[in-house]
Amino acid sequence: MPSKAVVLFSGGLDSSTVVAIALKEGFEVHALSFDYGQRHKIELERACQTASLLGATQHKVICADLRQFGGSALTDSIDVPKGREEKEMAEGIPITYVPARNTIFLSFALAYAEVLSAYDIFVGVNAVDYSGYPDCRPEFISAFEDLANLATKAGLAGNKRIRIHAPLIHWSKSQIIQKGVELGVDYGLTHSCYAPTDSGLACGACDSCILRLKGFKDAGLKDPVAYASE
């Protein structure tokens, strides 16, 4: 019987690849998505549409409205930066950073894993082609894993260590895409844009779109999703 794993699943390119990786490694995937008041809620629609297609055994959506705090262009009335150069993206923490988002999401995933008697949690954070988010760094993942084993009944029991898997953390976007294609991920079903049009088209100009498009170009592939600028 396969071991269970909780996979944080946004419906985007990275998390879809992580679902495929977890399945390839033989885990029974329990996908966990969040309706956190994000302006690009279409990613959640994609997650709901594709979880079972990717092969998840179960998919849950948690409501945790971070608009109550704001402080991010994704959850507040703040413009999403567009047209930035890669050098600009690497300088400082951008306004699209959602305060403590990955800490919050991983905490929910940890609680869910305990209920499932799962000792493995997968997350699609990336420390190479990313926009400077502090909660996408290896140090954060390592620290959270230590916390998980200190703060839970499962961790204290000592039968098995809780592991936080971040398989994409040292990969470039092109490497992520190549792995996903190898595993049969349909990237045409994913959504990455921070500022989609009312009809759901990707803007092509926000940091996330720029990094995604560069990833496909570097991989020698065409991005299958539609862009407003096309």
How does the overall form come out from the CA principal axes? globular
CATH architecture: 3-Layer(aba) Sandwich
Number of domains: 1
> What percentage of the residues does DSSP assign to strands (E)?
5-15%
How many DSSP H or I helices? 8
Strand order within the widest beta sheet: 3-2-1-4-5
Radius of gyration, in angstroms, nearest whole number: 17 Å
Q: Can you identify the CATH superfamily? A: HUPs
**What is the CATH third-level topology name?**
Rossmann fold
**Into which percent range does the helicity of residues fall?**
25-40%
Structural class: alpha/beta
Q: Sheet bearing the most strands, described? A: 5 strands, parallel
List the helices and strands and how they pair.
Blueprint: E1 4-8, H1 13-24, E2 28-35, H2 42-54, E3 58-63, H3 86-89, H4 101-116, E4 120-122, H5 138-150, H6 153-157, E5 163-165, H7 173-182, H8 207-218
Parallel strand pairs: 1-2, 1-4, 2-3, 4-5
Summarize the structure.
With 230 residues, the chain is α/β, with parallel strands linked by helices.
Structure explained in plain terms:
This protein is of the alpha/beta class. It has one domain (4-218): Rossmann fold. It has eight helices and five strands. It has a five-stranded parallel β-sheet, with helices on both faces. α1 crosses α7 (173-182) and α7 packs across α8. The model has no long low-confidence stretch (mean pLDDT 94).
